[in-house]
Design brief:
The protein is α+β, with helices and mostly antiparallel strands and 137 residues long. It has four helices and five strands; from the N terminus they run E-E-E-H-E-H-E-H-H.
């Protein structure tokens, strides 16, 4: 089991890892060794709560495709183990971000005194600007 927070966890069998060759410069080693990792996590088939599934699918994130599969590519490190743990950590962060309950915004109004101050300062500023004009005969 992989624990995201005290309320949420996912099974290790729900995550599919596959080793691929890393991109970019790296000399001969990059052509021989498959050190990058593709992590796949099917949101719809997971054991997450329905609320978290909906929030994950509603994200406008490139890592979540239209079929509801999270794909994370990790190729920062030279070893498969480090890339695997990096990908897993990024998945946990993604899911943890969805489990946080957002505070509902309460609409507020400026006080009467604040409105009066604002209008007074606008009036004062307007008078200053009107004095810049040409004198009236």
């Amino acid at each position: 089991m992989i624990y995201i927070n005290p309320h949420c966890s996912i099974g290790e069998d729900e995550i599919i890892f596959s080793a691929i060759r890393a991109q970019g410069a790296g000399g001969q080693n990059v052509n021989k060794v498959s050190s990058a990792i593709h992590l796949r996590f099917d949101v719809n088939a997971s054991s997450l709560a329905d609320v978290y599934k909906q929030r994950l699918l509603a994200l406008s994130d490139q890592r979540v495709n239209k079929d509801g599969i999270v794909i994370i590519k990790a190729q920062q490190f030279r070893t498969q183990e480090k890339n695997r743990s990096s990908a897993l950590q990024r998945l946990c962060e993604l899911i943890a971000g969805v489990t946080v309950e957002r505070k509902k915004r309460r609409p507020t109004k400026p006080s009467k005194n604040a409105q009066k101050k604002r209008m007074d300062s606008k009036t004062r500023r307007g008078k200053i600007k009107s004095l810049r004009g040409k004198p009236v005969d």
